[in-house]
Specification:
It comes from Friedmanniomyces simplex. By secondary structure, the chain is of the alpha/beta class. About 35% of the residues lie in helices and about 15% in strands.
């Protein structure tokens, strides 16, 4: 049985999901973790200026995305590259990182794919997701370069999504309003940020080969896991328990999930970025059930059984993001 991969490089180690993955990798003590970050800018954005690198990193490598040699040098000696970045980042950012990683000798890449399950063809979950074509093209690109990828199918991030305004899960906490998609009873799978961190860390703690489970079993495929399978009605019940509100205090309206999806498409085509989020979220609540990945999830194989999470506690975190104003940083 071979050893786990030792040297892990991660892009945006201080980011939304990147910070949880980085902390989990460091805490289990099986890897040396290097942060790949853009070099200092004279006038950083508020998000850059407030970001704090997790403690315990082996190194922090500052890079220039416009300098291929800079990226290659930063990634030399690494076994796996984890890419986390905003889904709306420039399209060539990930390609630049992949090219440099492969030239530096990295054989395993976890690309910027955190969310849905995307089949290689137009069938099954994710077939209508606007990110599917980009995701599949990235996979093929990595394979053509002679490296291997592992995708993360964790569903939407629960705290981020619940606190992120009406365009995501339909909740507007400031107005105490909720838009139910259809009847609000269709379940979908989603994950908390801490679970994403733990799942990725447990996956990378596996031996590369020689036993089962091992990393080779996820070569060029997605790892599927989740915290909850919940509907909007389940989320509302949790919100009421956490806040102490009565349902009558909330203004509840309805919109068809397919109509909402089409409305989001039209908004996005018209240049409204909010439409992008609206269509992504509406799709997982279609009555066809494609948003529920319970039958595919691999929590047990990752050693996550016995670590079940509490929905109300995750809701409490989301409400805290709203009350602190932090959730507004994540608005489209």
């Amino acid at each position: 049985m071979s050893a786990p991969l030792q040297n892990i490089a991660i892009v945006r180690a201080s980011g939304q999901v990147g910070s949880f993955i980085t902390k989990a990798l460091i805490s289990q003590g099986k890897h040396t973790v290097t942060a790949i970050t853009r070099g200092h800018k004279p006038t950083p954005t508020p998000r850059n200026s407030s970001a704090q690198m997790p403690a315990g990193l082996h190194a922090i490598k500052e890079v220039d995305y416009d300098s291929h040699p800079s990226l290659v040098t930063a990634m030399q000696g690494q076994d796996l590259l984890i890419i986390t970045m905003n889904v709306l980042a420039p399209r060539d950012s990930q390609t630049k990182l992949i090219d440099a990683a492969i030239e530096a000798g990295i054989k395993w890449i976890m690309p910027n794919q955190y969310g849905g399950y995307y089949a290689d063809d137009d069938s099954g979950p994710g077939k209508d997701d606007m990110l599917r074509d980009i995701t599949v093209a990235t996979r093929r690109y990595i394979e053509a370069k002679g490296a291997s990828w592992i995708g993360v199918a964790c569903g939407f991030w629960y705290e981020f999504s619940l606190s992120g305004g009406e365009i995501r899960y339909g909740f507007d906490f400031e107005k105490k309003s909720l838009t139910l998609f259809d009847e609000g009873t269709v379940k979908h799978t989603c994950s908390t940020w801490p679970l994403v961190g733990r799942a990725v860390a447990k996956l990378l703690a596996l031996p590369v080969s020689g036993g089962s489970p091992c990393l080779e079993e996820w070569r060029n495929r997605q790892v599927v896991f989740s915290s909850f399978a919940v509907s909007q009605r389940d989320m509302l019940a949790s919100v009421l328990r956490v806040t102490g509100d009565e349902e009558g205090e909330w203004r509840i309206t309805r919109e068809g999930s397919r109509e909402r999806f089409e409305r989001g498409q039209e908004m996005f085509k018209g240049g409204e970025i909010a439409g992008f989020g609206m269509l992504l979220y509406a799709r997982v609540f279609f009555p066809d059930g494609d948003g529920d990945l319970t039958g595919l999830r691999e929590n047990g194989r990752l050693g996550l059984l016995g670590e079940e999470e509490d929905l109300d506690e995750a809701t409490r975190v989301a409400v805290g993001y709203v009350e602190s104003g932090k959730a507004k940083e994540w608005s489209f």
